[in-house]
Amino acid sequence: QVQLVESGGGLVQTGGSLRLSCAASGRTFSGYAMGWFRQAPGKEREFVAAINRGGTFTALGDSVKGRFTISRDNAKNTVYPQMNSLKPEDTAVFYCAAVWSDSAFTTATRIYEYNYWGQGTQVTVSS
Q1: How many C-beta neighbours within 10 Å does residue 57 have?
Q2: SS3 at position 46
Q3: Measured between alpha carbons, how far is 20 from 36 in angstroms, rounded to an integer?
Q4: What is the pLDDT of residues 56-103, one digit of tens each?
Q5: How far apart are CA 50 and CA 68, in angstroms?
Q6: What distances in angstroms separate CA 109 from CA 59, 63, 103, 113, one per listed residue?
Q7: Pairing of strands 121-126, 10-13
Q8: For 2-43, what is each residue's pLDDT tens digit?
Q9: 49-53, long-range: CB within 8 Å, 24+ apart, which pairs?
Q10: What pLDDT does 1 receive?
Q11: What is the rounded distance in angstroms from the CA atom of residue 55 to the CA atom of residue 57?
Q12: How far apart are CA 5 and CA 84, in angstroms?
């Protein structure tokens, strides 16, 4: 099992940047593919970014391409989405997710692919 704790959320102005963190427990973090999703009030949870277990392959949601990146540090058991050029429509609760991956190449982009979730961190972008 793995436990996930997100941090780094907060209030930022339009055009600003934030770097979230997701710290994972356990000694086998490098075996998990990781992802980030977000959910705005009244909307469905949406894919944001994903990274394979080795950190060599990434995937981004259409709404964040060109603005967000994702990276991981397996030595620190942490995954980081870097969010730039933030917009008011990015306002949401951001969730970290993990799934054990037998493949070194897999990035998981769908909610149902993940079986471990963090509690979420609020990101608010003011106009």
Answers
A1: 15
A2: strand
A3: 10
A4: 999 999 999 999 999 999 999 999 999 999 999 999 999 999 999 999
A5: 11
A6: 7, 14, 15, 7
A7: parallel
A8: 999 999 999 999 999 999 999 999 879 999 999 999 999 999
A9: 49/81, 50/107, 50/108, 50/109, 51/79, 51/107, 52/101, 52/103, 52/104, 52/105, 52/106, 52/107, 53/101, 53/104, 53/106
A10: 85
A11: 6
A12: 22
One-letter amino acid at 11 equals: L
Q: What is the DSSP string of 69-116?
A: EEEEETTTTEEEEEE-S--GGG-EEEEEEEEE-S-SS----SGGG--E
Instruction: Give the whole-angstrom CA distance, residue 113 versus residue 127.
Output: 34
Length of the chain: 127
Rounded CA gap, 7 and 34, in Å?
Answer: 15
Classify strands 68-73 and 78-83 as parallel, antiparallel or unpaired.
Answer: antiparallel
Burial class from Cβ neighbours inside 10 Å (0-12, 13-18, 19+) for residue 66 reads exposed
